[in-house]
Design goal:
elongated; 5% strand; single chain; mainly alpha; HNH endonuclease; two-stranded antiparallel sheet
Length: 112
C-alpha cells in the first residue's frame, strides 16, 4: 500500500508558504548589500550622545574606527559624503566595491 505522505518529511501535509523576498540591507558607508553579518554602527558615537544606528559591514566599521576619532565622527554626523572626502576612506570604498558581501580582511591600526 502506498503512503499518503513522505516518511521523511512529517510536515509535508502543511501548506507551503513561500518566504517573501526581502530587499537586501545596504551598508551605510559603501552602499553594498550586507551579507549574513550586519553590524549596527553608531555614526555619532554613544559617548558623544549618538542614538541612531546604521547597518554596516564589519570591515567598513573597522575602517571608520581606524581612520577617525570619536570627535571627528561626531562632527560628520549622519553625512556619509563628509566621510568619503577622506582619501583613505574613498580608496577603501573603491577597493571593497567589487568584494563579496561577507568579505573580511585585516584593517590597519589607528594612525595617531
Amino acid at each position: 500500500m502506498a503512503r499518503k505522505h513522505s516518511k521523511y518529511d512529517p510536515y509535508d501535509h502543511l501548506p507551503q508558504e513561500d518566504a517573501p523576498a526581502t530587499a537586501p540591507v545596504l551598508c551605510w558607508l559603501c552602499g553594498r548589500a550586507t551579507g549574513k553579518t550586519i553590524v549596527w554602527h553608531h555614526p555619532i558615537p554613544k559617548s558623544r550622545g549618538g542614538r541612531d544606528v546604521v547597518p554596516m559591514h564589519s570591515i567598513c566599521q573597522q575602517t571608520l574606527i581606524a581612520n577617525f576619532t570619536n570627535s571627528e565622527l561626531q562632527r560628520h554626523g549622519l553625512e556619509v559624503a563628509g566621510l568619503l572626502e577622506n582619501p583613505n576612506i574613498r580608496k577603501f570604498v573603491d577597493w571593497v566595491a567589487n568584494k563579496d558581501p561577507d568579505f573580511t580582511a585585516a584593517v590597519t591600526k589607528k594612525q595617531r
